[in-house]
Write a structure and sequence with these properties.
With 543 residues, this protein is α+β, with helices and mostly antiparallel strands. The chain has helices at 2-14, 38-45, 71-78, 83-89, 92-107, 118-130, 132-135, 141-161, 170-184, 189-207, 218-237, 244-259, 278-288, 355-362, 414-417, and strands at 48-51, 54-57, 303-308, 311-316, 336-340, 343-347, 370-372, 379-380, 386-388, 393-400, 403-410, 419-427, 433-442, 448-454, 459-463, 466-470, 475-481, 484-492, 499-507, 512-513, 520-522, 525-527, 530-541.
Amino acid sequence: MFRSCWRYIRLLCASLPARQRDEVGPVCLYQDREEGDIDQAALLTGGVFRFAQKTYRLPMRDVWQKNNWPEDVRRWVYSFEWLKDLRTFGTNGGRLLARSMVTSWADRPPNDPIAREGGVIGRRLANWFGHYEFCLSTATANTQHIVLEAAVKDGRRLSAMLPLSSLGWEELAALRGLLAVYMAVPDYDGFLKRFEEQLPHVLARLLGEEGIAAERSPEAQYRCVQELTAIQGMFGVLQWLPPECVSVALGRACAVLRAFCHGDGGLALFNGAQEHGAKAITALLEQAERYRIVASSLSQGGFVRLTAGRALLLVDAAPPPPRGLDRMAHAGTLSFEFSHHRQRLFVNCGSAMGGGWQRALRSSAAHTALIVEGESSSGFGAGGHITHRPSQVRCQQEREGRADAVHLSHNGYYPSHGVIWSRSLFLDPSGEELRGCERVEGERDVPFALRFHIHPDVRVEREDEEIILHTASEIWRFHQTGGEIAVEDDLYMGRGTPEETRQIVVYSRPGRTLTSPTTEKEGAETRPRRQQKVEWVLEYVPL
């Protein structure tokens, strides 16, 4: 109760009038150079924008008071992430729109609780000052004064709200926003002190000793590296050495980010990630640090990474992250992605920022995984958090003959269907053969579908009971025993927009009673266990 009262008093003090300043504009600025989406910018200059594959209108007047956007949309718009799109677009119309939106907010911000969330405030401040030169440096003195006063007020509110727990990578964005306000208005040195006080704790909580994002997501890893790179650059602009914890965390986080990349240079698609593409990731890593180290293991983050020849196998080998870090988490436990050289073959379907697309892509069916009766291995609540998840996930790596093997299982379907799913994957040393064995064990047979989502750059052809995968320069063959095979239509969202593709689906057959059963007792009754098994092989076909 004392902490709550003290937090409330700090927030009240943050609302007091700011001291008067003589300067017209910011004293010091860090310029954000991240590439934006020019298509989005073109829509914005036309009075609309797109979010999660839907188009929304910008009200002509009182845009911040008269909108009826959904919560996810408001969170994105209120953070001013779209300023980078207008800056990349680079037109005078885009500059005037950005200036109008920032100044109208500064003059009369919306009375919306989302606008006062810590993560949203921090991202808004970072974006205002990161793109200040583009949209505000030529504005009138009065306009700049209004924006700076609003930023100081938001900075005081944000400082009073710290620490912000359970926001994931947005905690770093909030600290960056606080540092941006200090750089612009260094009279408020309390912002810097608060930043320096909180930063080590946030880094320890988010990245730990191994540099792996606590959200268990390549996307969160990418965002953490972005934020740390920006913070490092801001200290460079100040001509100060960044705190040692920033350099150490950034080096470790970059090594992990490289480990999450396929041969094409883009990110693997687990827990809300997008590909992003080699150009964006390479540019970020070159800016972040000069060493090109790849993390040798991702086990601390709950992933398995196996390489052989030119092949890469990435497996999600843990339950979704804990509550508070699970707002973007997917029900993808035991799903995997497989690529060879620069071509992805088996993938997960990607992610969306909100709406129906986000809900669909978070389900187990949107992952290269086994799905029992169309249900997900983890459930989602109304607020987006996970309501239930596998309580036991097992993973063991070993060498079997010449192949690297990983044996996994989870009990996510036990409460609802009474079965355990076990998956074994074997990667040949040449990287030209991937084998799998899927087992579903329980008191009874259950209908399941084993889904293998194919990247849209791969052409799929069926030949009797075999599936042929054609890439730009290779041919692969897939076959299985133990189930009924099919090829079905699919959609891929790994590159931000829906792309038609195909998926291989293996449907279950009746299983068998185990000859030496593990039994379960219900009173005096003993029930034998049933096992359904599917074995499959993906192999390279020499040309």
